[in-house]
Request: fold
Amino acid sequence: EREAALTATSGPGATSDGHQVPLLANIGGPADLAAALAAGAEGVGLFRTEFLFLDDSAQAPSEEKQTETYRQVLEAFPEGRVVVRVLDAGADKPLDFLTPAAEPNPALGVRGLRTLLDHPEVLRTQLKALAAASSGLPARLEVMAPMVADRQDAKAFADACREAGLSAKFGVMVEIPAAALRARAVLQEVEFLSLGTNDLAQYTFAADRQVGAVSRWQDPWQPALLDLAAFAADGAKAEGKSCGVCGEAAADPLLACVLVGLGISSLSMGSASIPYVRATLAQHTLAQCERAAAAARATDSAQEARQAAQAALSGE
Ligand code: PEP
Ligand code: MG
Reply:
């Protein structure tokens, strides 16, 4: 059945009644591009640039090296969006030369955008490399910051992008509940939101994503997480802007339908999941996705939410 579903569709992501939902790839670098293209990704929704920084634990890669890498990624998708996330160091991805050594709770410490604002030269080099890589190419580069908490963070990031001469769309990841709750304020500074459901679950449930004993709270089906996603999507809609998802939640075909039903406008995932998500979305209308989303949010646990969505989508 899984194979049959795979051959059912190809091309752009859409519900059965034609509501478009771009399906994008999460990549760690040029090595992942072939799989993204083979899966029919419509672009890159999350380029995790920290992988570029792992080769040398003492310093950041040069502007030239970064420019070359970003250009390879941009050239692979001449028609599609390419959303590059600036360096997300700290917590589960520590970098010796940037991450403070002795924090009691690294996930709650200086990481993501906070690290970059403490090391503006690292952010500046990365943004200048992105500006150089995209010059002369059709303008479809989008740049986003990880671990944004509030409007002030979003403004600091947008200011840094403008100062680096970057002509791209600027956005932020919603990984901290505060940013979801104040999505409309954050969107006064930037053009789009992208939900990082892995960290959003960690911070919503106070459950470290690296601690197996609390893994039950990492389940993205939890109704509280769906509520936050809906809140962010509603805020974006009210501002006339977009809100995608780039966390693991987008890779679960059933949950992808629910996210679309909540008003999420694009889904980015590991390339291997794209055909399954495309096939499942193509079997349901937007109205059915909306009913599944409402049914899931009306429950009190991840397990019930999954069952309710499944029942709503199959009893149609
Ligand atoms: C997330 O937190 O959901 C996310 C996409 O970022 P990462 O997994 O790289 O922290
Ligand atoms: Mg994250």
Remarks:
- Residues 146, 175, 196, 198-199 surround magnesium ion (ligand 2) (CB under 6 Å).
- The chain has a mean pLDDT of 94.
